[in-house]
Design goal:
Oligomer: single chain
Helix content: 25-40%
Structural class: alpha+beta
Largest sheet: 4 strands, antiparallel
Order of helices and strands: HHHHHEEEE
Strand content: 5-15%
Strand order of the largest sheet: 1-2-3-4
Number of strands: 4
Length: 187
């Protein structure tokens, strides 16, 4: 005679549809929130849609070696000072990918210097620390440029595998791009 199984024991091994539906709903809501954040916001009174763009500074040779040429490479994208963040995403991405491909990939300063050399405003930038609180290389490095009410945001790191860039809404009523502690850009 075969022992009968307790139906409650079998049911506990099956996935509960309520949990599956809740997970799907949470995923849909999170995706919708991310997509809504990518939509262009209307300009606020008293704010410009584009930041002040300074002339490219002349960074030191050591700061830009093999990362940011003083002139854009042939076929590269140009800065659109009167454009939107989306208009400048291609250049921002190109710069991030160029630094990521260099030997200076783990240095936040390299991204800032290369973006400045491409014409982005250093005063509108944020960058996270190169090292963790215990002195290890950061697992993820983020950098951004505030552009009107939006942000050009980049993220790189060994676990990411490539430079990832996005246009995201600005935070703190349009005054910043990155949450958490960032390092001073004082060079």
């Amino acid at each position: 005679m075969t022992p009968r199984r307790d139906p409650s024991a079998t049911a506990s091994r099956r996935p509960r549809h309520g949990r599956t539906r809740a997970g799907a709903v949470a995923t849909v809501l999170a995706t919708a929130a991310m997509l809504a954040g990518c939509a262009a916001d209307a300009p606020r009174p008293g704010r410009s849609d584009a930041p002040t763009v300074s002339a490219p500074a002349a960074p030191s040779a050591s700061a830009t070696a093999s990362v940011a040429p003083s002139e854009p490479a042939e076929g590269s994208t140009a800065l659109v000072p009167d454009g939107t963040a989306a208009d400048n995403l291609a250049l921002f991405t190109e710069v991030a990918e160029r630094v990521w491909a260099s030997d200076r990939r783990p240095e936040g300063r390299a991204y800032v210097d290369a973006l400045v050399a491409a014409g982005f405003d250093k005063a509108a930038m944020q960058v996270t620390e190169d090292l963790s609180t215990v002195g290890n290389p950061a697992e993820s490095l983020q950098f951004s440029v505030l552009w009107g009410d939006e942000c050009l945001v980049g993220q790189v790191g060994p676990d990411i595998g490539e430079a990832v860039t996005r246009v995201l809404p600005a935070l703190e009523e349009g005054t910043m791009c990155l949450v958490g502690e960032t390092r001073p850009i004082d060079w």
